[in-house]
Amino acid sequence: MHIDKRILENMADWMRDKEDIPQGWIYMGDENERYLLGQPKKRNMLVFGVNPSNAKPGVENDDPTIRKVRKLTAAAGYDGWIMVNLYPVITPHPADLPEEPDQDLINANISVLKALQGAYRIDAVWAAWGDAIDTRSYLGDTLYDIQEALDGDLEWFYRGKLTRSRNPRHPVYMQEDGIFERFPVGYYAAYWRDAGV
Questions:
Q1: I need a surface site. Which of 5, 87, 116, 174 has the fewest CB within 10 A?
Q2: CB-based contact 28:119 (threshold 8 Å)
Q3: Which residues lie closer than 8 Å to 76 by C-beta, 6 or more apart?
Q4: What are the tens digits of pLDDT across the range 109-163?
Q5: Number of Cβ within a 10 Å radius of residue 127
Q6: How far apart are the C-alpha atoms of 176 and 75, rounded to whole Å?
């Protein structure tokens, strides 16, 4: 997917003017890649998965992950949510991601994330990738680059218990009674970078 620089410079206006996106939704993607999906409002949570599914704008086009994200962010007092990913290639199974990363896709993803942060208010970030981050060694490296590129004032959280591998749990696999706790993303990401995993 080609991402025009003009879109990134005026993301909120571009999203508002897109006739194929339902009102109140934002979406950037095609049949192979998805960079963002959400319903931003006044108080927004940015939610990081590993890779996108086939969910698209509109309640009728969501999937179990998006339904859970919408429910849990609302329960925590956020009226808006935006789903993004460490790697933008669409696949229902992280194990089907390419063995080697496409650096152009990673760079495009980071550019979109920086533009998103400039266009919409982000009140918190939810680390929600589960053990899928372990499926490809480049995903941890990508997280390091992402958290370095985003505004340093963002507060990161995880919800519920960490997995046995000490990863923040994926929304689909968590109980509804969990709470959001601060996530030390800098230390976590540095582990990936330093360990070379």
A1: 5
A2: no
A3: 45, 180
A4: 999 999 999 999 999 999 999 999 999 999 999 999 999 999 878 999 999 999 9
A5: 24
A6: 9
CA distance 148 to 150: 6
Beta strands 156-159 and 80-85: pairing type? unpaired
Phi, psi dihedrals of residue 6, rounded to the nearest 5°: -65, -30
Mean pLDDT for the stretch of residues 42-70? 93
- Does the pTM surpass 0.90? The reply is yes
Cα 78 vs. chain centroid, distance in angstroms?
16
* Cβ atoms within 10 Å, residue 184: 12
Q: Domain residue spans in the chain?
A: 5-195
CA 17 vs CA 6, 7, 22, 53, 173: distances in Å: 14, 11, 10, 25, 36
Query: What is the residue type of 42?
Result: K
Nearest-CA neighbor of 87 among 65, 58, 107?
107
